[in-house]
Amino acid sequence: MKALVTGGAGFIGSNVVKFLIEKGWEIRVIDNLSTGSKDNLNGLDIDFINGDICNEKTALEVCENIDVVFHLAACVGRQKSIDHPQLDSQINLLGTINILEGMRKKGVKRIIYSSSAAIFGELIETSIDEDHPQNANSPYGVSKLAAEKMILSYSEIYDITAICLRYFNIYGENQRFDLYGNVIPIFAKRIFSKEPVTIYGDGEQTRDFVNVKDVARANYLAAVSNVETQVINLGSGTSITINKLLDIMKGISTVKVLVENQPMRAGDVRDCKANINKAYSLLKFDAQIELNEGLKEYMFWYRENCL
Ligand SMILES: NC(=O)c1ccc[n+]([C@@H]2O[C@H](COP(=O)([O-])OP(=O)(O)OC[C@H]3O[C@@H](n4cnc5c(N)ncnc54)[C@H](O)[C@@H]3O)[C@@H](O)[C@H]2O)c1
């Protein structure tokens, strides 16, 4: 099988590429290296195209001779989208249309899309299934939702099967600290550099963290299954408080950590957990990497690669 992985030099994309290579797939990556890094793909035998999905001609060319597209290239994150709303929609929506047009013209019949729980906006249930109301409340949530709807509409109109995987919080190898980063790399950076760690609110808010290797496997399962067009929530199906997360990371590092408390940020949800029944029933997906183990591996990777 030959796959195109858009955003394959990024955190999740590079893990998807690695998983597919281990399964014997031939891989082409398109990535403009805006946030990704070629280092994430070191040692992997792939066809790497340094290009932009916002370029229609490039998006068409990279779809030549491809069986499945894994579409991950995106402008990622709520705050980044608030700071750069046009860029966010340009990549996440218009870039997605370019890839869909490339698929249509080159006859690619399956797409696995990396969607996001951000499409739900404010969460009104504690265990989030696929029918949770979609009230995206950031430019990022809106563009990811619009791209998901666009992909589903292409699937209605053309001979394209689309599996949209709506990720909750993902962590693991190749996840580096950045300005708009997620809590786990932020904690790792602060802990190892002995800087105070900030907790917003009382720290008792909960999140669902799933390891990126489980997510890579879910992408593979979605590609090889004969499941027809679907939206599927993807997390661990469990949740943990931010205080407990910090405790585990402190324990692993054995560094003495100073905690600073700040007021809860506007737009932050209180509790968040994926209901992964559909992922299990359709893809036989369950999260296999236990958080303690995954965090140990991540902290080790972070120390070796990011300090
Ligand atoms: N990290 C999470 O917890 C999370 C949660 C929900 C959804 N997602 C989704 O998963 C996908 C991957 O996210 P990630 O966390 O790996 O982010 P990332 O920033 O590490 O990966 C995105 C990749 O896309 C590339 N890219 C960006 N714009 C591009 C363009 N115009 N053309 C070509 N390449 C471009 C970047 O260089 C990068 O390599 C995204 O679609 C994101 O919305 C991530």
- Taken as a percent bin, the fraction of beta residues is 15-25%
- CA gyration radius, whole angstroms: 19 Å
Total strands: the figure is 15
Give the helix proportion (percent range): 40-55%
Side by side, the strands of the main sheet go 3-2-1-4-5-7-12
Weakly predicted, low-confidence segments = none
- What compounds are bound to the protein? nicotinamide-adenine-dinucleotide
Any idea what the shape is? globular
Main pleated sheet: 7 strands, parallel
Strand pairing plus helix content: what structural class? Answer: alpha/beta
Write down the CATH topology of the largest domain. Rossmann fold
Overall mean pLDDT: 96
Highest CATH level, the class of the largest domain: Alpha Beta
For CATH, the homologous superfamily of the largest domain is named as: NAD(P)-binding Rossmann-like Domain
The CATH architecture classification of the largest domain is: 3-Layer(aba) Sandwich
Description:
By secondary structure, this protein is an alpha/beta fold. It folds into two domains: 2-171 and 210-235 and 276-283, NAD(P)-binding Rossmann-like Domain (Rossmann fold); 183-206 and 238-269 and 290-306, UDP-galactose 4-epimerase, domain 1 (Alpha-Beta Complex), CATH 3.90.25.10. 40% of the residues lie in helices and 20% in strands. It has helices at 11-22, 56-61, 78-83, 85-106, 139-157, 183-192, 212-224, 242-253, 277-283, 291-306, and strands at residues 2-6, 26-31, 47-50, 68-71, 110-116, 127-128, 161-167, 169-171, 197-200, 206-207, 209-211, 230-234, 240-241, 259-262, 273-274. The strands form five sheets. The chain has a seven-stranded parallel beta sheet, sandwiched between helices. The chain has a two-stranded parallel sheet with strand order 6-15. The protein has a two-stranded parallel sheet with strand order 8-11. Strand 1 (2-6), helix 1 (11-22) and strand 2 form a beta-alpha-beta unit. Helix 6 (183-192) packs across helix 10 and helix 8 packs across helix 10 (291-306). The protein starts with a strand and ends with a helix. The mean pLDDT is 96. The protein binds nicotinamide-adenine-dinucleotide (NAD). Nicotinamide-adenine-dinucleotide (NAD) is lined by residues 7, 9-13, 30-36, 52-54, 72-76, 91, 95, 114, 116, 144, 167, 169-170, 182.
